[in-house]
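Structure ticket #2291
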Amino acid sequence: MGTRSLTYVFDHHNNDILTCIYRQYDGYISGHGLEIASYLSKFTIVNGLGARDEEIKVANGMGCLSAQLIGHLKAGEAGNVYIYPPLLNQDCGQEYEYHIYKDTIQAYENAYGKSKRQIFKGSWSEFLEYCREVKRRELKEVA
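Resolution: structure written out below.
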């Protein structure tokens, strides 16, 4: 059985949900969390594209970022990553949820039979460090 997750990307103008991404397996912090944190930490959100934007990784708003993130996660492979209806409080058997905003990300844990609890809130770069630390701890436990 996989570790399922939902990732919501929110519009930066009105906080509407633009996208809900369902991941069938590897949805835990040191898997999917680390993957999206590593990907997001390279981006700058802009409003309109300019000539210098080729020098940095940009997304022309959160809709553009959402589309790029989906393309990255799918990588041309069938299965594992799906688009779900953009509705909060879905029960897809997810153990983790990630809420991506223009400058921040929130991560939640959904333990079986327990209510959702927030385990992280901060900037994209802070989330990357958090995910790396979780991975380091897991590696120490295995050793």
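Closing remark: The radius of gyration is 15 Å.
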